[in-house]
Amino acid sequence: MQQKLEPGVNTAMFDGVEPEVAFSTIREAGFRYIELAYNQGYVGNLDPSLFGPENAARILDLLEKYQLQTRALGCTMNLAAPDAVAQFTTRIQFATRIGATFLNACIGKREDRQTIIANLQELAPLAADSGCVICIENGGDPNYDVFAVAEEGMALLEAINSPAVAFNIDPGNTVSLRPERDAINECIHMLPGARHAHIKDVLCKEGEFFFPAIGEGVLDYQPLLRELEQRAIPCSLEIPLRMHRSSDTLPHRASQPVDPAISLEVLKRSRQQLEALLGYPL
Fold this sequence. Notes:
This protein is of the alpha/beta class. It has 9 helices and 12 strands. It has a single domain (8-278), classed as Divalent-metal-dependent TIM barrel enzymes (TIM Barrel), CATH 3.20.20.
């Protein structure tokens, strides 16, 4: 019997909201998996203590309280930074503490490609020893353009040459950074190297990019959902309501967090759309 998709929810939509509110809202919306979004440049308050044992214990308590599970950790960062290996090592340790397998990350600029490759080659054995996979993500803005399309990503995987490094695919990022490409087909071409996926829709308004409920933007996800289902690749809804990308594709965060009641309704509408596309309840 073909495995059914069980999408999780990335917490980017709860940027600036207390973690317990995010957990309770995701559970109320009917989802069972959560992906923490600790992404440089996209969410606020990324204190290093987030990756320590005290916060890990807090996350485990919340997972138990709200009967949620986690498979993935969003940890976008510049992997060419001078202390990148040390920083990302703390993320691997944190993922291990909370039970997340996939570390999803946009990883830096094209001009730093060789440094990024070298750092990932150093990090890969640590990830493998920890039972984790570093899932490099096609970027959506110029700060994370080391790869944006399938051939660029495949070349990176070949250069890194480790089973502990794979893809997290995100069609929504392709829409902004490489609009001349068919975003869904581009990500389908990445599937042989993918271990995780983000489901993100995009609404283009006056040259800027916003992230609505799934099914309310420009992307038809049905072909990709079927591929993820057939390949048993886990996924999370990534709907960063507080953030949009300007015409230069750089991210801009609103001054105030989004009301969790709005996030709940967006999740409910997204769930309904996914159920209609898949033909079964989530």
